[in-house]
Amino acid sequence: MKNYLEQWSNQFASRLSATVARSGRVEGVRDKVLGPRSDYASIVVAFEASDSLKVECSADNRAELEACGYLDYAVFGLLDVLMTASTYPMRNIRLNIVEAEIHPIHANQLAFRWAGRDAGRKIIEMLSANQR
Fold first, then answer.
1. Which CATH number does 22-130 carry?
2. Could you report the per-residue pLDDT of 31-81, keeping only the tens digit for each?
Protein backbone atom coordinates (compact mmCIF):
# COMPACT_ATOMS: atom_id res chain seq x y z
CA MET A 1 0.00 0.00 0.00
CA LYS A 2 1.22 3.51 -0.81
CA ASN A 3 2.33 5.81 1.96
CA TYR A 4 0.12 8.75 0.99
CA LEU A 5 1.27 10.96 3.84
CA GLU A 6 4.91 10.63 2.76
CA GLN A 7 3.98 11.22 -0.91
CA TRP A 8 1.98 14.34 0.00
CA SER A 9 4.83 15.62 2.18
CA ASN A 10 7.39 15.17 -0.60
CA GLN A 11 5.20 16.99 -3.14
CA PHE A 12 4.47 19.75 -0.66
CA ALA A 13 8.16 20.28 0.16
CA SER A 14 9.09 20.60 -3.51
CA ARG A 15 6.52 23.33 -4.28
CA LEU A 16 7.51 26.97 -4.38
CA SER A 17 6.47 29.17 -1.50
CA ALA A 18 3.95 31.98 -1.94
CA THR A 19 5.40 35.47 -1.69
CA VAL A 20 4.61 37.52 1.39
CA ALA A 21 4.56 41.06 0.03
CA ARG A 22 3.82 42.99 3.22
CA SER A 23 3.50 42.77 6.95
CA GLY A 24 0.42 43.19 9.08
CA ARG A 25 -1.66 42.10 12.04
CA VAL A 26 -4.86 40.09 12.10
CA GLU A 27 -7.18 38.79 14.78
CA GLY A 28 -8.51 35.27 14.67
CA VAL A 29 -11.60 34.54 16.72
CA ARG A 30 -13.69 31.50 17.50
CA ASP A 31 -16.91 32.44 19.32
CA LYS A 32 -19.54 29.81 18.74
CA VAL A 33 -22.43 28.41 20.76
CA LEU A 34 -22.57 24.64 20.34
CA GLY A 35 -25.79 23.55 21.99
CA PRO A 36 -25.32 23.53 25.76
CA ARG A 37 -21.68 24.64 25.56
CA SER A 38 -19.65 27.31 23.80
CA ASP A 39 -16.22 27.66 22.24
CA TYR A 40 -14.21 30.84 22.66
CA ALA A 41 -10.66 31.76 21.69
CA SER A 42 -9.04 34.89 20.31
CA ILE A 43 -5.52 35.45 19.01
CA VAL A 44 -3.76 38.40 17.40
CA VAL A 45 -1.04 37.45 14.94
CA ALA A 46 1.60 39.75 13.47
CA PHE A 47 3.14 38.51 10.22
CA GLU A 48 5.93 39.53 7.85
CA ALA A 49 8.11 38.10 5.11
CA SER A 50 10.91 35.77 6.16
CA ASP A 51 13.43 33.43 4.56
CA SER A 52 11.63 30.42 6.14
CA LEU A 53 8.68 29.60 8.35
CA LYS A 54 9.19 31.07 11.81
CA VAL A 55 6.63 30.97 14.59
CA GLU A 56 6.98 32.95 17.81
CA CYS A 57 4.74 33.90 20.70
CA SER A 58 5.27 37.15 22.58
CA ALA A 59 1.85 37.14 24.29
CA ASP A 60 1.97 38.02 27.98
CA ASN A 61 0.14 34.77 28.85
CA ARG A 62 2.43 32.48 26.83
CA ALA A 63 3.11 30.14 29.77
CA GLU A 64 -0.61 29.53 30.25
CA LEU A 65 -1.10 29.03 26.50
CA GLU A 66 1.65 26.43 26.44
CA ALA A 67 0.52 24.67 29.63
CA CYS A 68 -2.99 24.16 28.23
CA GLY A 69 -1.79 23.23 24.72
CA TYR A 70 -3.59 26.24 23.28
CA LEU A 71 -0.47 27.67 21.63
CA ASP A 72 0.20 24.49 19.64
CA TYR A 73 -3.41 24.31 18.48
CA ALA A 74 -3.45 27.98 17.41
CA VAL A 75 -0.29 27.37 15.35
CA PHE A 76 -1.78 24.18 13.84
CA GLY A 77 -4.84 26.20 12.81
CA LEU A 78 -2.65 28.83 11.16
CA LEU A 79 -0.73 26.13 9.30
CA ASP A 80 -3.96 24.36 8.25
CA VAL A 81 -4.76 27.41 6.16
CA LEU A 82 -1.39 28.92 5.23
CA MET A 83 0.02 25.67 3.90
CA THR A 84 -3.01 24.56 1.86
CA ALA A 85 -5.38 27.43 1.07
CA SER A 86 -3.57 29.10 -1.83
CA THR A 87 -1.86 27.84 -4.97
CA TYR A 88 1.49 27.82 -3.21
CA PRO A 89 2.08 27.14 0.49
CA MET A 90 3.02 30.18 2.53
CA ARG A 91 6.28 28.91 4.03
CA ASN A 92 8.38 32.09 3.90
CA ILE A 93 6.56 33.91 6.65
CA ARG A 94 7.28 34.91 10.23
CA LEU A 95 4.28 34.61 12.54
CA ASN A 96 4.17 36.09 16.02
CA ILE A 97 1.19 35.50 18.29
CA VAL A 98 1.23 38.80 20.14
CA GLU A 99 -2.02 38.46 22.09
CA ALA A 100 -4.29 35.62 23.12
CA GLU A 101 -7.45 35.67 25.14
CA ILE A 102 -8.28 32.61 27.22
CA HIS A 103 -11.86 32.42 28.45
CA PRO A 104 -11.95 30.72 31.87
CA ILE A 105 -14.86 28.42 30.90
CA HIS A 106 -15.25 28.30 27.11
CA ALA A 107 -11.61 28.09 25.98
CA ASN A 108 -10.40 24.74 24.64
CA GLN A 109 -7.79 23.44 22.24
CA LEU A 110 -10.12 23.16 19.25
CA ALA A 111 -11.38 26.70 19.78
CA PHE A 112 -7.78 27.87 19.48
CA ARG A 113 -7.31 25.79 16.32
CA TRP A 114 -10.38 27.46 14.81
CA ALA A 115 -9.10 30.90 15.89
CA GLY A 116 -5.79 30.07 14.18
CA ARG A 117 -7.64 29.09 11.00
CA ASP A 118 -9.59 32.35 11.12
CA ALA A 119 -6.33 34.31 11.45
CA GLY A 120 -4.77 32.32 8.59
CA ARG A 121 -7.71 33.13 6.29
CA LYS A 122 -7.44 36.81 7.17
CA ILE A 123 -3.68 36.80 6.39
CA ILE A 124 -4.35 35.29 2.97
CA GLU A 125 -7.19 37.77 2.32
CA MET A 126 -4.96 40.69 3.29
CA LEU A 127 -2.12 39.52 1.05
CA SER A 128 -4.46 38.75 -1.84
CA ALA A 129 -6.00 42.23 -1.65
CA ASN A 130 -2.53 43.71 -2.16
CA GLN A 131 -1.97 41.77 -5.37
CA ARG A 132 -5.09 43.15 -7.09
1. 3.30.230.10
2. 999 888 899 999 999 999 999 899 999 999 999 999 999 999 999 999 999
pTM of structure: 0.89
- Domain definitions of the chain by residue range: 22-130
Q: What is the distance between the alpha carbons of residues 131 and 36, in angstroms, rounded to a whole number?
A: 43
Question: Pseudo-torsion of CA 41, 34, 118, 132, nearest 10°?
Answer: -150
28 DSSP β-pair partners: 43
DSSP-derived 3-state class of residue 48: strand
The one-letter amino acid at 121? R
> Which ranges in the chain belong to alpha helices (H)?
4-14, 62-68, 70-82, 109-130
**Under a CB-based contact definition with an 8 Å cutoff, are residues 131 and 18 in contact?**
no
CB atoms within 10 A of CB 64: 14
pLDDT of residue 3: 87
What is the rounded CA–CA span in Å between residue 70 and residue 112?
A: 6
